[in-house]
Amino acid sequence: MKLYLDPGHGGADPGATGSGLAEKDITLDIALKIRTILVTNYENIEVLMSRSADITKGLAERTNEANSWGADFYMSIHINAFNGTAQGYEDYIHNSLSNDSVTAKYRDLIYAEVIKLNQLIDRGKKKADYHVLRETAMPAMLSENGFIDHPHDAALMKQDSWRQNVAQGHANGIAKAFGLKAKSEVPVPGTIYKVIAGSFKLRANADDRVTFLHSKNIEAFVVTTTISGETWYRVQAGVFSNRSNAEARLQEVHNVGITDAFIMAEPAASSTPSPQPVPTGYAILGPTYLSPEQMNRFAKSVNPNAPELGSYYLTFGEYYGIRGDVAFSQALHETNYFRFTGIVKPEQNNFAGIGATGPSNTGASFKTPEEGVLAHIQHLYAYATTQPLLDKYPQVDPRFHLVKRGSASTWTALNGKWAVPGTTYGQSILSNYEKMINFTKQNLDTILQSL
Ligand SMILES: [Zn+2]
Question: Which residues belong to the active site?
Answer without folding.
Answer: 144
